[in-house]
Design a protein that fits this description.
Elements (H helix, E strand, L loop, with lengths): L5 E5 L3 H13 L3 E5 L2 H10 L4 E4 L8 H8 L7 E5 L4 H10 L3 E4 L4 H16 L9 E4 L2 E4 L4 E4 L2 E3 L3 H12 L5 E2 H8 L9 H18 L6 E4 L3 E4 L2
Parallel strand pairs: 1-2, 1-3, 3-4, 4-5
Antiparallel strand pairs: 6-7, 7-8, 8-9, 10-12, 11-12
Keywords: DNA-binding, Phosphoprotein, Transcription, Transcription regulation, Two-component regulatory system
Protein name: Response regulator transcription factor
Pfam family, one: Trans_reg_C
Length: 231
């Protein structure tokens, strides 16, 4: 029997929150409505979550502030649903840790499809048949616990960053094109307009690894081709 999939809906608009929860129930998921960032924090401390749908304009603790704190609770996919359409806001949220950004008003079927896609991708991180610990230089990635340590200290990664690192560490000698990365991690066809999104996530991942282990370089960019682990 499959474990229930718990998804928190952090949205202060009662109608939108009810609509999203209804769609999630019809898809077989277990939704939990939260109407403020502070309420969402309480739920985060109570149990593990498979995904969070997050509005940015919340009473009290804002969505941006909440996003900064979610990483402390593990690699949880976060989908932003916001009326803020500014390009810089989208880039900032992706850099902070969001896995996707959907502007309001949204098409509910598209939101449902993206939720399904993210959950499929999150469950399908490549795993070797025997060893569930991947090691490269001073980094250890635990595929079972979905955790990363560098030099023995835990490294806080978003779900996207974790999946990119897992992809690279599973095939340490392989050169991954941006199309490879996008289609493996995002579980969608690569058209070409997604390059900036990939660049942002890889840049964030590289920065976190560099801060955790300043003496080592973990990800190598082969210009015009893609990425691979630095030997």
């Amino acid at each position: 029997m499959e474990k229930p999939v718990h998804i928190m809906v952090v949205e202060d608009d009662d109608d939108i929150n009810r609509l999203l929860c209804s769609v999630l129930r019809k898809s077989g998921y277990v939704p939990q409505p939260a109407y403020s960032g502070t309420e969402a924090l309480l739920y985060l401390e109570k149990q593990k979550w498979n995904m969070i749908l997050l509005d940015l304009m919340l009473p009290g603790l804002s969505g941006e502030e909440l996003l900064n704190r979610i990483g402390k609770y593990g690699s949880i996919p976060v989908l932003i649903l916001s009326a803020k359409e500014e390009r810089q806001t989208k880039i900032d949220m992706l850099r902070t840790g969001a896995d996707d950004y959907i502007t309001k008003p949204f098409d509910i079927e598209e939101v449902s499809a993206r939720i399904d896609s993210h959950l499929r991708r999150y469950r399908r991180v490549p795993t070797p048949a025997e060893n569930q610990l991947l090691k490269h230089k001073n980094a250890i990635l635990d595929l079972d616990a979905k955790k990363v340590t560098v030099g023995g200290s835990p490294l806080s990664l978003t779900a996207r960053e974790y999946d990119i690192l897992a992809l690279l560490m599973t095939s340490p000698k392989k050169l991954f094109t941006k199309a490879n990365v996008f289609e493996s991690v995002w579980d969608e066809a690569f058209i070409g307009g997604e390059e900036n999104t990939i660049n942002v996530h890889v840049s964030n991942l590289r920065s976190k690894l560099s801060k955790a282990d300043p003496g080592e370089e973990y990800i190598e960019t082969i210009w015009g081709m893609g990425y691979r682990l630095k030997a």
